[in-house]
Design a protein that fits this description.
Strand content: over 45%
Shape: globular
Distance between the termini: 29 Å
Oligomer: single chain
Order of helices and strands: HHEEEEEEHEEHEEEEE
CATH topology: outer membrane lipoprotein receptor (LolB), chain A
Amino acid sequence: MLLRIFVLSTLLATTGSVAGLAQSSASDQQGVAVLQKALNASGAALNPIRTFTATGTITYFWAGQPVQGSATIRARGSDQFRLDANLPDGPRSVSTGRQGGNRKNPDGKLNAIPSHNTLSGGIVTLPYPAIAAALADSSVTISYLGLMEEGGRAAHQVRIVRNFPADTDPDGTLARLSRIDYFVDAGNFLVLRTEDVIHPVESLTENYSHSIELEGYTVIAGIAVPALVREKVGGQATWEFRLSSISFNTNLQDSDFVLQ
């Protein structure tokens, strides 16, 4: 199984996506329509987001104690994401893409994030580049799961699953790891929350719920941007990011997402 993940990582590194590696999947047209409306409502359909740089404050919740500092977020494409935080104990960074990623602690050591924890990942604090990429990708299956309540609001639940060639993913493990659900406000069609699962570094089968909550949308440069982003693992808040500023289509390169 680890060999298959290594093969996938190599394919992603050389091609940049898995589009075209599988035949078109039969997506649910209602799910496709909801995601298209979300992309339109965000402004990203008319103003495609190639990159962005955002600044703000971040609060981590460690052992029930909040720790706050300043933070800078950089993003590129549909999955390259980097967060740099300046905290009282020193700087911390995380950089991810679908091939995996790294964390850097104040002691300067790098800890690898395996690809089985990033296959479902996109740009954590802004879901619309990943939605746009999914709508354009013939290897993605989009399914409508129904209307439900989300934070006191009616929301459409839509699931995205990436499909891989049978010789790369014979038992469907990679497809399951790639699954992510979007909860889209039934009124304004902005994304309220995303949900997937994460796993311990050494295990693909032990699952923990992982959600990103998006609140306080404001329009900046024609794009609806959440002013507050909250991560939860197993239902417990791990961090919150409060936006101060954001600039779109800044000049970011692959090298900007390499932690050293």
